[in-house]
Design brief:
Layout: E1 3-6, E2 12-15, E3 20-21, H1 28-41, H2 88-103, E4 114-115, H3 124-129, H4 132-136, H5 153-156
Antiparallel strand pairs: 1-2, 3-4
């Protein structure tokens, strides 16, 4: 079951209990959370900054080799369908998101087609997906989003 974690610093993180993606358990509620965060993160193309040098300027040779890599995992067509089933489309969006984060230079960004729970090995994708709720709004307003799966209400909010 997905969880919402709060800290003293008033930050909220969302996590899954078990991995989602390629060769993962893919529990329905965990998949719904990942699909919702992917939907929010990939509504449009993710931009990758391109390093350009103005003509005529000299540039020092970098210590590492800079390559202009072209993405191998293109953005799947349309928006991700939030249905709780981790199929080819969901894995495609996970791999697209991971590769875009890697090309943007995010430290430790993995490219394995999985979203692992926070606190376990290889959790960079879950951390990066957590940047999205800041764009959506406060945690208690997530349920007001048209894309928010109503099945997740019981995971995050307890009504008395």
């Amino acid at each position: 079951m997905p969880r919402m974690l709060s800290s003293i610093l008033r930050t909220t993180l969302y996590t899954v209990d078990r991995a989602v993606g390629r060769n993962a358990p893919n529990d329905r509620l965990d998949v719904l959370l990942v699909q919702f965060l992917l939907f929010s993160s990939t509504k449009s193309e993710i931009s990758v900054p391109v390093l350009t040098v103005p003509r005529g300027q000299r540039v020092a040779t970098p210590l590492f080799r800079v390559t202009t890599a072209t993405p191998t995992h293109l953005r799947p067509q349309g928006n991700i369908f939030i249905d709780g089933v981790c199929g080819d489309q969901t894995i495609g969006f996970i791999e697209y998101f991971q590769e875009m984060m890697r090309l943007r230079g995010e430290a430790g960004a993995e490219l394995n087609g999985q979203v692992a729970p926070l606190g376990t090995k290889a959790t960079t994708t879950m951390k990066l997906l957590n940047y999205t709720p800041d764009k959506i709004g406060l945690p208690w307003t997530l349920g007001q989003s048209d894309a928010f799966p109503q099945e997740l209400n019981n995971s995050f909010y307890n009504y008395v």
